[in-house]
From TrEMBL:
Statement: the UniProt record of this protein carries the keyword Nucleotidyltransferase: no
Keywords for the protein's UniProt record, in alphabetical order: Membrane, Transmembrane, Transmembrane helix
High-level lineage: Bacteria, Pseudomonadati, Bacteroidota, Flavobacteriia, Flavobacteriales
Aminoacyl-tRNA synthetase keyword on record: no
Signal peptide start and end residues: none
Transmembrane segments: 12-33, 45-64, 73-94, 114-133, 145-163, 183-208, 229-258, 300-321, 341-359, 391-411, 423-445
Protein name: Beta-carotene 15,15'-monooxygenase
Source organism (scientific name): Flavobacterium azizsancarii
Amino acid sequence: MKSIFSETQNNVINKIWVFGIILFSLSMILYYIEVFTPNTFIFTQLWRVLFWFFNTLILSWYFYKNNKIKTGIILQLLSLPYFFKNDISFFLDYNFTHYLYNFTWYESIYINKIISFLTLIIPFFYFVKYYFALENFNISKKTKWFFPVLISIVLLIVIDIEARDTFGNFAFLNFSEPYMQDILITIIEFINTFKILFGLIGFFYITNRFGGIKSIRKPIDEQFIDKNFFKWGFIISFFILILTVLDLAQSILTISIFSSKFDFAEICKLISSYFLLLYSGRFLGNLIQFRGYSLKKYFGVINVFALAPILNIFTFFVLLLTKKTENATQYFLNLKKNKKLHLAIYCLLLTAFLVYEYFTNEVKTINDLIKIPVFILAILLVAYYKIMTKIVPFAVVLFLYFKHIKFFFDFTDGYLVFFKDKIFSFLWLSSFGVFILYYVLYYVLHKSFYVEYSDIENEEDLAVNIDKFN
């Protein structure tokens, strides 16, 4: 089995609490400068320089801890223009306006977009090159394209480096005591530091897992899943999945309220989020299935709670602490019976939840009751047929959101309006996110109940498949 972390990654993870203290201290210094110092040129520039140093240190720290001081410094210097992109854009626009406005299509905002893109992409590719060179991954040709996407996710999601009035966002709150704002900011920055550290560890974990596999469809090799592998895999994949969902919700809400134009940076961020959501969901699904194979036990409905915050603590500890069954024959003999029993329990729980939801709703509709047979049919299909993971999630979305989808494909105002207001907008991207969420949900449900070759008479194929996990 591939090691959890490489030696170079462990150099960062060991005593990572020291790095956490540095980041937290810098964030509190930034807060002090922004809130408690006069709004002068010197303090403004000092804040911007510290903000640049804080954000770029997150990735440069990897090189510093592995004695690649020159690489780390160059990465931070290459990132510097990004944090002064508005000044650079203004300078170019002001000094070259006479020449640029000879082009009828030119607008001042174009320079800002080009500078933003170039100042981000240059340090991004620099980090890609030197990180994977130092890790020395044996990357297959099929998965080589994935790595730049994965790193862009880390840059755009885990480390959100948009220079904005971070602490001023709380100015609208009326605190009874002045120190209450300080306490709130301290708590938020402490949580944010934890998020960055955990995100960095998660990034190391995923790249280390992905470095040796041959297919994007299978984020984990078919192998025995021991306690240590499962513990790290479950915690990190679930954390990244939830973090991505929350970030998606925030991005879509921000876009819907504040964005009126098609912004390239926001599109990249959304697409990256969808990709990470898809990958982490498939990783978690395969992890719980392979853990069951490794223990020679059928967990079924217990696995279902893997996606539910708080409730998944039960799933985690059951799969972590359960002992491996020595008598594999008994596992094979009881497999079909256990599967039917677990599916029956799931259907009863699902029905009870939907009935409760129906009676507690102020507005009751027949569709709320129709959900019961639809969702039961959906789980039976994905539990018995692998191909259904590609059909059922989308059918469920069509059933639940038919009115919204019908509105989306409404051509009554003409095809031009359709393309302008719907296709060339964020609407289709946010709608696509709903399909991805349901796909991840039903993929994990499929992996919770489905066992390869368990529904055919040839028990030798089932035994050979399970033997891979000994």
